[in-house]
Amino acid sequence: MIAASLKALWKELTPFNAKLIAVSKTKPNEDLAEAYDAGNRIFGENKVQELVAKAEALPKDIEWHFIGHLQRNKVKYIAPFVSLIHAVDSVKLLKEINKQGAKHNRIIECLLQVHIAQEEAKFGFNTIELNQALSSPELNTLSHIKVIGLMGMATNTTNETQVISEFRGLQSVFKELKQTELPHNVEMKELSMGMSGDYKLALAEGSTMVRIGSSIFGLRNYPTNA
Ligand SMILES: *Cc1c(COP(=O)(O)O)cnc(C)c1O
Predict the structure, then answer these.
(1) In sequence order, what are the beta bridge partners of 147?
(2) Which of 11, 82, 187, 189 is the most exposed, having the fewest neighbouring CB atoms within 10 Å of its CB?
(3) Is 196 in the pocket of ligand 1 (CB under 6 A)?
(4) In this structure, are residues 153 and 170 in contact, taking their beta carbons and an 8 Å threshold?
């Protein structure tokens, strides 16, 4: 079931040249091992403790992506090994990631989360704040982080027109920034958008990374999107 879903998704993503982040939050290690055996090496988690425990238990060549809202006081636990932090929403958080990256002699890759949904609850910069963050003099001084793109979550709605317009809006911010002069530690390469319910729409709007959980591992027993 897990292997078959992964294979179908990889096939679907190939023409778009997009990466699959298998979102394994709340799922037991056996499920991750099954995905690993099917060839998956990129997993996404949204809770620090859960990520650390899974990274300890599972093979060392896994690329772990942190996709949730990250609290500054928890950066230290994932800094030694995390491959990509998807949802950075403040310069303060970037500074903490930089500090922990320095301790481990690593450059930690990050995406800046942009608020594109209508829902209040979703985190992220608005476009004004995003431009402020990218032009903040402090950002230039952070040598242990690299911002490699943007991440966004569309409104959870069946209104496809709305979801498309939110993804399209993010893509246009991304493309505009690509044309702009950016700090030395920022490069607009990756656009992380799309989940089980909307990844097809996201791919059509230029997503380079889709974060898919339930379509691979089945429904979760409790919501963990907060
Ligand atoms: C849970 C989660 C996903 C995956 O959600 P599915 O609907 O199960 O595919 C993607 N992105 C983030 C940030 C998440 O928290």
Answers:
(1) 110, 186
(2) 11
(3) yes
(4) no
Task: State pLDDT tens for residues 170-219.
Answer: 999 999 999 999 999 999 999 999 999 999 999 999 999 999 999 999 99
Q: Which CATH class is domain 2-217?
A: alpha beta
Cβ pair 197, 160 in contact under 8 A: no
Ligand 1 pocket: which of 43, 67, 201 to mutate (most atoms <8 Å of CB)?
A: 67
Q: CA of 109: how far to CAs of 29, 47, 56, 187, in Å? A: 25, 18, 21, 10
The reply to whether the predicted model has a pTM over 0.85 is yes
